[in-house]
Design goal:
The chain has helices at residues 2-7, 10-14, 20-38, 56-63, 77-99, 104-107, 120-123, 152-162, 169-180, 203-217, 229-234, 239-254, 282-294, 313-344, 361-366, 382-392, 400-407, 414-434, 444-467, and strands at 42-45, 48-51, 65-68, 111-115, 137-138, 149-150, 198-199. The chain is mainly alpha-helical and 474 residues long. The strands form 3 sheets. The chain has a 3-stranded mixed beta sheet. Strand 1 and strand 2 (48-51) form a beta hairpin. Helix 13 runs antiparallel to helix 16 (382-392). The protein is globular and about 65 Å long.
């Protein structure tokens, strides 16, 4: 880059850009980069310098806009719809957690939503207020908190009661369920009082409070302190598959988990070479649903090896949705942590280990203590490809283990990973079966999804019986 700059002025290089949109995007990126290089935001803690764990949220509050500039690997109508639903479901709560500690102007600030598919004039702020694009906006949601009281002694006592060594969503849901009916609950004392949560100067206590706040903001615990149906079913999920189950439940809430083929956005058809179906029969839908759901479970690869087998267009499109959903949940985690730090002061910041909010798999292996925070790392969807191979395998049952190992040589042990995925599928069906039956006409889509799950389960169990591979005990 330095060599290119020395050859000619920047303006000369810009004249070679084929479109005005490319020029505008370059100027925008150049200006942002220049500001960040000259005014790098840092926090000084003791003798260390740590960058901000969250950049998107304060940037949105400062600029009054939320820019989704990155394009997905596969652009779909479902992706764009989900992108437009995120502000009402997650982003307004994340910004509200931070804005409530700031000036009143931030609490009522209108945040304009912009995305990669908007016109360049709108993204650059050149279009008029009356344009149809300018209607996508929201404000931070300032709500009353539950008055959580998380102490070091209480966390340690609950960890002994549950016989666990890690604070996670399952731990917090079961702790809440145990404390809910108690009149002398230390976890939720006098929730009618208008006051903020309190936390001990301890890492596990801080992690527990952040988890509880995320569960509250994402609808697993109500504002009155009662657990919802989603929380009741999630608390009984095994720790190994709880995060995939939580993501699946969130996708069900948003209506983006199904076996239907994805739809191409107007003017951007899918490449004809992938031969992607516009419509699908019942078995094809069942296979799509099975592979999508079980792709939420991470795959164990050998060391730092890259995936060297097939890729799947449908799963790539599906994980474009998963990626932005998990990013929204992580931003909710970041906002909850930032809200606690803004209230309690940066003394609690010193408790956070290096890589506390790390989402990269390799970095997590180098800093295992970072798993104290909710993972919500970006999944690869590779296990879904293996599940598709399993469902379509027609060879002799005795040859499957050898054939699948040869097909996917970068995997540590394919069959045990498949069995964990089957266990996750079984647990998700348990969650659906536990939901109360309702006569609400709006529940028609939910009932249709249950029927799709039932049909897909028949396809899965038939192949499990043929190959003799069944869910693991997790």
């Amino acid at each position: 880059a330095v060599y290119i700059i020395k050859q000619a002025p920047l303006i000369n290089w810009m004249q070679t850009f084929p479109t005005e949109d490319m020029k505008n995007d370059h100027v925008d990126g150049y200006c942002i980069c220049k500001v960040l290089v000259q005014n790098s935001p840092v926090l000084h803690v003791r003798d260390h310098i740590e960058g901000h764990p969250l950049a998107k949220l304060p940037q949105a509050l400062a600029k009054g806009e939320w820019m989704d500039k990155s394009q997905p690997l596969v652009d779909t109508v479902e992706f764009r719809t989900l992108l437009e639903d995120l502000p009402d479901v997650y982003r307004k709560h994340a910004l509200g957690l931070i804005a409530q500690h700031l000036h009143q102007g931030f609490q009522t600030k209108t945040i304009m939503c912009k995305a990669f598919y908007d016109s360049s004039t709108f993204r650059q702020g050149l279009s008029g207020e009356g344009s149809s694009e300018s209607t996508r906006s929201f404000q931070p949601c300032i709500t009353k908190w539950l008055r959580w009281r998380v102490t070091k002694d209480a966390v340690e006592a609950e960890m002994r009661r549950q016989n666990v060594t890690k604070v996670d969503f399952r731990f917090c849901l079961n702790w809440h369920a145990n404390e809910w009916d108690r009149n002398d609950s230390e976890l939720m004392p006098n929730n009618d009082q208008d006051s903020a949560p309190t936390v001990s100067n301890d890492l596990n206590s801080l992690c527990a409070l952040v988890h509880l706040m995320v569960l509250e903001q994402s609808g697993y615990i109500t504002q009155s302190g009662e657990m919802t149906h989603f929380g009741n079913v999630l608390k009984d999920s095994p720790s190994l598959t709880l995060e995939p189950c939580m993501v699946a439940l969130e996708m069900m809430k948003l209506g983006v988990l199904s076996g239907d083929p994805f739809e191409a956005p107007p003017g951007r058809p899918f490449p004809p070479q992938v031969d992607y179906p516009e419509h699908a029969d019942d078995r094809t839908k069942a296979v799509m649903l099975l592979t999508r759901v079980m792709s939420l479970v991470p795959m164990n690869l050998k060391g730092d090896e890259m995936w060297n087998a097939d890729v799947d267009f449908d799963l790539t499109a599906f994980h474009s949705l998963v990626r932005i959903l998990k990013r929204a949940l992580r931003q909710l985690v970041e906002a909850s942590l930032a809200s606690v730090l803004l209230k309690e002061g940066l003394t609690l910041w010193r408790l956070l280990p290096p890589g506390f909010m790390c989402a990269d798999a390799c970095e997590r292996r180098r800093a295992p203590v970072a798993r104290s925070a909710p993972d919500l790392h970006v999944a690869t969807g590779l296990l879904g490809i293996v599940v598709r191979y399993f469902l379509k395998y027609t060879g002799p049952p005795g040859n499957f283990a050898q054939d699948v190992a040869q097909k996917f040589p970068c995997c540590v042990d394919v069959v045990p990973d498949l069995q964990v995925a089957f266990a996750f599928w079984k647990d998700l069906r348990r969650c659906l079966d536990a939901f109360p039956k309702t006569q609400d006409p709006d529940a028609e889509d939910s009932q249709q999804f249950v029927e799709e799950m039932t049909m897909a389960n028949e396809v899965l169990e038939a192949q499990q019986r043929r190959l003799g591979i069944f869910p693991a005990e997790v």
